[in-house]
Fold:
Amino acid sequence: MPADLVEYRRMSTYAGIEIGGTKTLVGFGSGPDDLGAIVRIETTTPEATMAAVADVLWARAHSEGLKGVGVASFGPVRIAPDAPDHGRILKTPKPGWSGADLLAPLRRFGAPIGLATDVGGAALAEGRWGACAGIDDHVYVTVGTGVGMGVVANGRLVHGALHPEAGHMSVRTAAHPDPFAGVCPFHGDCLEGLVCGPALAARLGRPGETVGEDDPVWDIVAGHLAQMAANLTYVLAPRRIVIGGGVGGAEHLLVRVRKTLGDRLAGYLPHLIGDDALRDYIQPPRLGARCGVLGALILAQDGV
Structure:
């Protein structure tokens, strides 16, 4: 092997791309210890956004080379590698993005590409370096502009015909009456339609971040999230559930979720009886704003 090629490979790096509904983040490295400055790109049209991402990658590829590229994108997105529409955004309420091809602009670099949802990437990152380190079976939930979930079993993301879309589960029950009709354009009062940021704004006529911790709306939100957690617990039996996002990561909300979850489980599962057990089970994320990019770096490395 030529010496210059050996040097090129020694210096090559991984690229992690998190494509969100409002912003896209690009970082380089292999993990938290060598992740440098993260480049922020506004998520506008697919063409403009992915062109800007390619420009960032092109500059780094010329100086260091790219050993692998990981993409953690908002969904729904086709992640099955054998599907004819692999790498394309599926039907989405985000204008202009239905059918967008995320991978075509990245293939020019000749590096392997790993793909998952943004919340799936976050689940991987929290599992390797964050709140679920050392745990092979866990769920990451983000509650913000929408509600997304990444499910990890035996250390790997769980995917079937599609990635999990549990944010659209039905959660309304007589135990937590809620007259709000919901904002989901597909289902109205699914979990996402009831507890996401736009749902809070529609309920209250003001942004959720302006709502005080003692507002009774948080009891409603906690009731829905506790039912979600109970459903996940019964169906998947994860060892930990991490709840984050601009809405979900608030500690005062998690305190309510733990209390309501304990009431709903009613002592049925012995490993989740008591405040300490529930505090260990329902946790906030630990990696902060870097979580999605770090997850994308894992996808880049697994794709090699």
